[in-house]
């Protein structure tokens, strides 16, 4: 059989063959090929033509047309059945047939090209052209694909990098090459060249695994290591895998690439990461984790830093991370879960109020294995909110630490459903213990583990599609909103994409929020988590330098601090090299600057609040644009957009606000502005025992994000502010306070800024906490009354003016009164909440008296503030 015969000539043939060969459905187009589908398209075109132009009956194939999704849907009816077709670009449509995500692109000078991928493994990208393409065309297409950011955002995070690698490496298979050389006008296939592409027969048997890497090569002797065969996988280097023979040879040390001191820790395994990711998948969260624990027993899971004597070299007294293996985490979780199953009825609510510690994870998995619902409660919560939360979720057990026990004891008389308190730590305060009523059992976590470690492990008894967790949204007022997290919600974030190995992350944000999802995703992927050592921010950098994470999630407040550091270095270097341009100084400075986060960062993510353009563009210049992701979402809807681009699976609408309509802005402004509402499978079902808020936020499957957005390009969304931070000022303009604050973080003199405005006053007030730099430049400190320091005040006022001019901030949006304050916002004073965001309701409360006073004073002074 000649090569020619192996390839189909018509689309119908191609479809049948592809389906047989790969067990997948392809979307294919009819352009320039003969066959049934071509006629179908022609008919559709003809019908349209007939309607408008009776004279025209000769239908031209190459004509620019069919940008209409209904028509496209008709065209592919046979293949996509009734799947929704999303238009994501005039030349790009997407279908999702549940097993494969399919994109159909239309190039102006090329025929249709389809790209399809397995939804969870991007390595299975295949590009199929519907006709022969030449060398130059190929280059053009690749160039086009590389610049095609539509692909990037459907994949999120470090998959982008994989895509880029992949497209760069894309090449023709030998036999296809021959066809091209022979100039045959038939379908060709472009497949990425990867090591160990599985052979076709195997692929037919396990079609879902077809493009996964299931064979690999020893990094030292290159011998093929097949699926199921033993190999040692390095936990530091990217893709360093040794066969058992080479592993024993001292010479094999030469293959390690990471800068960690040798020997590197390796774990003995039998499958590739791709295989693990797929085979560990299950339709329950419980089973996914069980699979992960079974597959990675030797891998490092959780790390805490060792304590060493303080010295000049090590003033903090913390040494390297010491690691707890997956096996040990699993065992301890099982012991704890067994104990719980003997002490507490299944399906009870378990409140957890802890810092990030290994115990947190044992509790989390113990509850998952034995059927309990975890309710994480941020330990910075205030008493009023705490009482609300605890009465809403009604836990029978509370797990606390030294600081949270104080809070719990304080409110025990406001809730009577508690049966047990479990204390994590040593030596609980006897005075506090005395205040606990007799009907509440008090236990110490380490004692439970000791007591049950030799007992028979109880059989697992996970919840069957139950509520795995309730997550309370922070800083809200009124009835607490406990977001119901079910199995499917957890699965969505575990399985959305695969993380490359090694993946290492610092667990430092409160586990009562997004950090927990991110951390659990690491564990499902076989990665490891270094747990932060001390609650002091100064030590955070020290932890990061020690851990050298590959992935970093942080809210804007952390990145703002990096930006302040950047500005300080920039200023001092500028005096050294006055002749250099900013970009040249950055060249000098960035290598050192990057080291602040270790030297193996793969992806940096910001989210949870607005970040200013200066900060994120500095991050992109420093760490590389392809590594920085600005995500937007909520616990209720999960990730909705990445780098402003709405994810493909999200349907959305923008509902104009009444105020905007009244002001006529909606009609004058061609850009849609309004509240974002979204719909997708990722949406949670609602709030626990809170019908009112559930009905308000979830309507017919649409979730109201509560944010004001503008759609500046199709599917590109800019977040302006929380709707509740926005208001119509007395001058009739719509003002977004958080957006305004973000402009001014550019100034090196500003540590924190809180801008206040309301509909009753015609101008805004800014409360500013000056930066270290500002304080030292003006020879003052936070103990002084800063407003008395006229030169400091003037300097900051002129910063505000300068930035306002530079950013062309309209006059009503520029704060007219600047007041300096000496309170640093922290978790402890509740001005920053557990997820690291500025706690706006608390800030408002905190500064309200001051703000009232300022408005009153200014009124008396009758200053013309509006010029
Ligand atoms: Zn070898
Ligand atoms: Zn290594």
From TrEMBL:
<feature type="compositionally biased region" description="Acidic residues">
    <location>
        <begin position="55"/>
        <end position="67"/>
    </location>
</feature>
<dbReference type="GO" id="GO:0004467">
    <property type="term" value="F:long-chain fatty acid-CoA ligase activity"/>
</dbReference>
<protein>
    <recommendedName>
        <fullName>AMP-dependent synthetase/ligase domain-containing protein</fullName>
    </recommendedName>
</protein>
<dbReference type="InterPro" id="IPR020845">
    <property type="entry name" value="AMP-binding_CS"/>
</dbReference>
<dbReference type="Pfam" id="PF00501">
    <property type="entry name" value="AMP-binding"/>
</dbReference>
<dbReference type="InterPro" id="IPR000873">
    <property type="entry name" value="AMP-dep_synth/lig_dom"/>
</dbReference>
<dbReference type="GO" id="GO:0016020">
    <property type="term" value="C:membrane"/>
</dbReference>
<dbReference type="GO" id="GO:0005783">
    <property type="term" value="C:endoplasmic reticulum"/>
</dbReference>
<dbReference type="InterPro" id="IPR042099">
    <property type="entry name" value="ANL_N_sf"/>
</dbReference>
<feature type="domain" description="AMP-dependent synthetase/ligase">
    <location>
        <begin position="319"/>
        <end position="688"/>
    </location>
</feature>
<feature type="region of interest" description="Disordered">
    <location>
        <begin position="43"/>
        <end position="72"/>
    </location>
</feature>
């Amino acid at each position: 059989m000649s090569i020619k015969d192996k390839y189909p000539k018509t689309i119908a043939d191609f479809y049948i063959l592809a389906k047989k060969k790969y067990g997948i459905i392809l979307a294919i187009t009819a352009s320039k090929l003969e066959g049934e589908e071509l006629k179908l398209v022609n008919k559709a075109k003809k019908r349209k033509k007939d309607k408008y132009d009776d004279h025209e009956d000769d239908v031209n194939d190459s004509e620019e047309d069919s940008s209409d999704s209904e028509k496209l849907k008709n065209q592919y009816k046979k293949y996509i059945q009734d799947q929704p077709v999303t238009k994501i670009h005039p030349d790009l449509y997407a279908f999702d047939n549940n097993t494969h995500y399919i994109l159909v692109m239309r190039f102006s000078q090329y025929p249709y090209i389809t790209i399809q991928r397995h939804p969870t493994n991007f390595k299975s990208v295949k590009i199929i052209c519907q006709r022969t393409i030449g060398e130059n065309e190929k280059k053009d297409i690749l160039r086009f694909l590389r610049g095609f950011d539509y692909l990037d955002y459907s994949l999120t995070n470090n998959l982008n990098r994989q895509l880029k690698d992949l497209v760069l490496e894309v090449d023709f298979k030998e036999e296809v090459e021959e066809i091209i050389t022979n100039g045959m006008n038939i379908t060709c296939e472009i497949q990425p060249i990867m090591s160990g592409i599985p052979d076709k027969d195997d692929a037919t048997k396990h079609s879902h695994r077809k493009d996964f890497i299931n064979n690999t090569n020893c990094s030292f002797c290159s011998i093929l290591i097949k699926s199921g065969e033993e190999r040692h996988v390095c936990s530091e280097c990217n893709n360093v895998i040794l066969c058992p023979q080479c592993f024993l040879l001292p010479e094999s040390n030469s293959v390690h690439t990471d800068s960690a001191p040798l020997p590197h820790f390796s774990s003995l395994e039998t499958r590739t990461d791709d295989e693990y990711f797929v085979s560990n998948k299950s339709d329950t969260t419980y089973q996914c984790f069980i699979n992960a624990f079974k597959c990675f027993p030797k891998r490092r899971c959780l790390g805490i830093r060792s304590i060493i004597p303080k010295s000049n070299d090590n003033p903090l007294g913390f040494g390297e991370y010491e690691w707890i293996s997956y096996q040990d985490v699993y065992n301890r979780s099982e012991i704890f879960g067994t104990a719980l199953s003997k002490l507490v009825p299944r399906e009870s609510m378990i409140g957890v109020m802890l810092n990030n510690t290994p115990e947190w994870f044992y509790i989390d998995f113990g509850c998952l294995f034995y059927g309990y619902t975890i309710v994480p409660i941020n330990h910075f919560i205030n008493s009023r909110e705490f009482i609300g939360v605890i009465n809403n979720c009604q836990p029978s057990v509370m797990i606390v630490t030294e600081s949270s026990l104080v809070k719990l004891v304080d409110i025990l008389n406001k809730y009577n459903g508690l049966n047990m308190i479990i204390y994590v730590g040593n030596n609980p305060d006897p005075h506090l213990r005395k205040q606990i009523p007799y009907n509440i059992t008090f236990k110490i976590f380490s004692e439970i583990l000791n007591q049950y470690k030799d007992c028979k492990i109880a059989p697992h008894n996970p919840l069957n599609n139950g509520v795995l967790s309730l997550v309370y949204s922070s800083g809200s007022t009124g009835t607490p909103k406990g977001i119901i997290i079910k199995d499917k919600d957890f699965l969505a974030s575990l399985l959305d994409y695969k993380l490359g190995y090694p993946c290492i992350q610092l667990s430092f944000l409160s586990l009562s929020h997004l950090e927990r999802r991110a951390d659990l995703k690491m564990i499902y992927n076989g990665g490891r988590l270094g747990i932060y050592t001390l609650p002091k921010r100064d030590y955070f950098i020290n932890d990061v330098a020690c851990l050298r994470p590959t992935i970093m999630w942080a809210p804007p407040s952390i990145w703002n601090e990096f930006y302040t550091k950047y500005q300080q270095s920039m200023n001092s270097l500028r005096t050294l090299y006055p002749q250099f341009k900013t970009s040249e100084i950055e060249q000098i400075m960035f290598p050192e600057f990057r080291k602040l986060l270790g030297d193996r960062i793969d992806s940096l993510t910001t989210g949870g609040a607005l970040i200013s353009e200066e900060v994120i563009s500095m991050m992109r210049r420093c760490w590389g644009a392809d590594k920085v992701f600005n995500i937007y979402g909520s616990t209720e809807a999960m990730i909705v957009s990445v780098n402003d681009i709405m994810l493909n699976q999200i349907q959305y609408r923008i509902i104009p606000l009444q105020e905007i309509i009244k002001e006529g802005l909606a009609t004058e402004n061609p850009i849609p502005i309004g509240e974002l509402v979204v719909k997708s499978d990722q949406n949670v079902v609602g709030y626990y025992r809170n019908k009112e808020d559930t009905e308000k936020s979830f309507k017919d499957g649409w979730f109201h994000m509560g944010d004001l957005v503008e759609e500046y390009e199709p599917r590109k969304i800019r977040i302006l502010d929380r709707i509740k931070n926005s208001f119509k000022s007395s001058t009739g303009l719509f003002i977004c306070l958080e957006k305004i604050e973000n402009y001014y973080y550019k100034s090196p003199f500003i540590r924190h800024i809180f801008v206040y405005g309301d509909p009753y006053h015609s101008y805004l007030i800014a409360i500013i906490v000056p930066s270290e730099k500002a304080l030292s430049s003006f020879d003052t400190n936070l103990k002084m009354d800063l407003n008395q320091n006229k030169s400091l005040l003037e300097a900051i006022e002129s910063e505000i003016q300068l930035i306002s001019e530079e950013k062309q901030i309209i006059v009503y949006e520029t704060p007219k009164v600047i007041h300096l304050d000496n309170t640093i916002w922290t978790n402890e004073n509740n001005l920053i909440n557990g997820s690291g965001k500025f706690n706006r309701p608390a800030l408002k409360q905190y500064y309200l008296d001051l703000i009232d006073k300022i408005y009153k004073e200014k009124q008396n002074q009758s200053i013309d503030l509006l010029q």
